[in-house]
Amino acid sequence: MNYRSIEDLNQCIATNLSRVPLGTDLIVGVPRSGMLAANLLALHLNLPFADVEGFMEGRILQSGSRMKSYLKPFEDYKKILIIDDSVWSGKSIKEVKEKLHGLYPDKEITYAAVFAAPESIDKTDIHFDVCPGPRIFEWNMMHHDLLENCCVDIDGVLCKDPTEEENDDGPNYEHFLANVVPFFRPTRTIGVIVTNRLERYRPQTEAWLANHDIKYNKLVMLDLPTKEARQKANNYGGFKASVYLKYDSWLFIESSIWQAQQIANISGKPVYCVDARKMIYPNMLGETRGKVRQVLQKAINVVKSTFTSRQIA
């Protein structure tokens, strides 16, 4: 999994300013995530910027009083850089090119992307870095089609963690489950929601997810009778890692840094830590063990499938 943070985006832009054609006087972002890249690049270069639709209509975005002396009539902007955060299939850039074809024959337009897939580096005039797939970015993680191949925790990710008072395994906890405000409302279907909430709280958890229109394929909960039993087992990261491996997901999204490290080391696969805002990778020993577990799990799945087929036959 190739992950890029907003910090990575900014760093990549800042270290590649020399690749921007000399004399560029206007930056144009491809909506929507390309606007983030365009704004950062424009700030580094002290240039005005616009969105594609605004550019087509001959207007630029307001830049505050500090930029007033740098602004000029729209027709005087001659060297334009149109930028997207990334290029994969090249569809978005192609659509922009078609929209702008023949619109401004007096302007020199350069197309750019911050990150490009290896097979797409020819889709733009310039790119700042190569980022192969599978890939996921901090700024669109919870709204990416890839989410359907991910495991996602609830408490600390989709909503806040309960306080000690709320986490009483009784009426306070039930009130928390019903009324906690979500952090995120993902706009894509989550593959597997994995939580250390107890199985007996499934009805309340499913109701909360439905109430906030959070879609998912599977909800896996900890099948233990009480909070005390869960604390005694003390296998929070191990449980989540086992689910991560079982469903062969590409990424686990977790809030706790120590659980993220456990999950990564046990599974041998990356975990995105929401609290730390970074990707946690397995250590070498954990990665080796994780690969062994993946092979064993796949073998078990094959055996189960064969056994089931024979029973049906």
UniProtKB/TrEMBL annotation:
The keyword Transferase applies. InterPro entries: HAD_sf (IPR023214), PRTase-like (IPR029057), PRTase_dom (IPR000836). One of its GO terms (molecular function) is glycosyltransferase activity. Keywords: Glycosyltransferase, Transferase. Gene3D superfamilies: 3.40.50.2020, HAD superfamily/HAD-like. This is Phosphoribosyltransferase family protein. SUPFAM superfamilies: PRTase-like. Residues 21-135 form the Phosphoribosyltransferase domain. Pfam families: Pribosyltran. The keyword Metal-binding does not apply.
